[in-house]
Design a protein that fits this description.
It holds the Pfam family Methyltransf_32. By secondary structure, the protein is α/β, with parallel strands linked by helices. It has 18 helices and ten strands. It has a domain of 266 residues: Rossmann fold. The protein binds S-adenosylmethionine. The site of S-adenosylmethionine has 19 residues, from helix 8, strand 2 and strand 6.
Length: 476
């Protein structure tokens, strides 16, 4: 995938089904009567489906086969969404440095020594291999970890690249301090491929350079000195992995390569009418003109970008999905309750940010409401609590039927999320190719450079798993 024809189909598809990615907050399910806006054939099917519907739905949500007897129009949309979204399998790619998973085992001992979770160790180990290859090929003398956080990647890079200067940049000073502290005490074992070694010792000879700074396309070039750099980022939020880092790569002579995995797409700037150069989507001329010419009413909004990280395909346990779906059901019902229960005390409709709640809140609707109201500061006295319990008793819905409907809507939306993420990533690829002068249907071009988009992490371990790698053609 990646040609303009594929992009055309992808944008058309998202444009056609825009309501699913952009048209509603699921917690307004009851209040806005969202079910009435779903295709009547699908509604009828969900309401009439047999008792094993939820089981099938969970299977489909995790990438399983769509049952033959489901409506043709529904199967078609699901299949097209799956076809248009970028694939998620990790394929060996020696040139970039992507090895098969079985080459490395992240056991408890490796995690303990590296002081990282299994997920983090998996990510930094695989990413650092790619970075090392790029730094070697580009003869880079410095690597800059942008949005370095607690320094998990930074410290492994310092260990693997003893002759290179390693920078750790983050806008959060507490994280920079934590990272510094970690760097002086960590004992890092990158399992069998590298001997266990004390980073603190190494730090005395070649210390990591820590910088607290909020980066944007203007500040990053200012921080860079005259060296040969590789810019890297692990789960760099929003525009950091897009506009900021990609533009810096293209505009700064000294930046020879970039290796970045993005996340938090909802933080991409899509709303700056006064200054289009600050927009994080679309970045490429190709995608911009495709939208302008063929889909002028299409755009990615904050809400549609929040769906980009929505997927159940990486869940390996149906009960975890079921509990997430139950959370959506409770949240929607809670919104309904809030509007009738002393509305004077509540915020305007839809403005309550409930977020994560303690595990006990997921047991039943009553526990959910008590936990949510406590978190929102709405249960300030015994009297208020009593009135809340009364109000909960008055909420009457056909629980099983509503749960099915909400589960269906949530799973449907999860089919579009990976398509949105794919569009964002393909746009970034196009932008890099345009900037380097590489033909859009090629990965590399003699004398210009190369651009890759590849799956790097195991999807079940880390669903934001796609790495963007670009290199300039200067290898001297
Ligand atoms: C999701 S965390 C990832 C941290 C680290 N790379 C990791 O994988 O553990 C993103 C980090 O980027 C930092 N960050 C976000 N926007 C930034 C910006 N514009 N400039 C510098 N740091 C930024 C945040 O403070 C946060 O530490």
């Amino acid at each position: 995938m990646g040609t303009s024809t594929d992009l055309h189909t992808l944008v058309s598809f998202l444009s056609q089904h825009r309501w699913w990615i952009d048209g509603f907050h699921l917690f307004d399910f009851f209040c806005d009567n969202l079910w009435e806006q779903v295709d009547p054939e699908w509604r009828e099917f969900v309401d009439a489906a047999s008792g094993d519907f939820m089981e099938h739905l969970l299977h489909v949500a995790t990438g399983g086969q769509i049952p033959e007897m489901w409506p043709e129009s529904l199967k078609a949309v699901m299949c097209i969404a799956r076809t248009l979204a970028l694939g998620r399998r990790v394929e060996r790619d020696e040139e970039i440095g992507i090895l098969p998973e079985e080459d490395v085992v992240y056991d408890d001992e490796a995690c303990r020594l590296a002081a990282m979770s299994r997920k983090k160790l998996h990510e930094v180990d695989r990413l650092s291999r790619v970075i090392f290859r790029v730094a070697e090929r580009q003869n880079a003398d410095s690597i800059i970890d942008v949005g370095a956080g607690h320094g998990y990647l930074t410290h492994l890079l310092a260990h693997q690249n003893p002759s290179r200067r390693i920078y750790a940049i983050d806008c959060d000073d507490a994280r920079t301090c934590g990272s510094k502290d970690r760097g002086t005490r960590i004992v890092l074992s990158n399992h069998h491929r590298h001997p266990t070694r004390i980073i603190a010792e190494h730090q005395k000879e070649n210390p990591v350079i820590y910088v607290t700074a909020r980066l944007d396309p203007q500040t990053l070039p200012e921080i860079l000195e005259a060296h040969r750099y590789v810019l890297v980022g692990l789960h760099s939020c929003g525009d950091l992995s897009g506009l900021t880092m990609l533009r810096t790569f293209l505009e700064c002579e000294g930046v020879k390569g970039i290796v970045v995995v993005g996340c938090c797409y909802h933080r991409i700037c899509v709303d700056r009418e006064d200054d289009e150069s600050q927009l994080g989507f679309p970045l490429s001329n190709n995608v911009r003109s495709l939208i302008q010419v063929h889909h002028p009413s299409f755009s990615l909004t904050y809400r549609s970008l929040t769906t980009a990280c929505l997927t159940f395909a990486s869940f390996d346990n149906p009960s975890t999905i079921l509990s997430a779906l139950r959370g959506h059901y409770h949240r929607s019902l809670f919104e309904l309750l809030l509007r009738s229960w002393e509305p004077a005390h509540t915020l305007p409709p839809g403005q309550h940010r409930v977020g994560g709640l303690p595990k006990a809140a997921s047991t039943d609707f009553r526990s959910y409401c008590v936990a949510a109201c406590t978190k929102l500061g709405l249960c300030t006295s015994d009297e208020r609590r009593g009135s809340l319990i009364d109000a909960i008793g008055k909420v009457e819905v056909d629980r099983e039927k509503m749960m099915r409907r909400i589960a269906f809507m949530c799973v449907m939306r999860s089919f579009f999320g990976p398509c949105v993420e794919s569009l964002v990533l393909l746009d970034r690829m196009m932008y890099l190719k345009e900037g380097l002068g590489i033909p859009l249907d090629q990965d590399k071009h003699e004398g210009k450079g190369r651009v890759w988009l590849n799956n790097l992490f195991d999807y079940a371990e880390s669903p934001r798993n796609m790495v963007v790698v670009a290199e300039k053609a200067t290898c001297v």
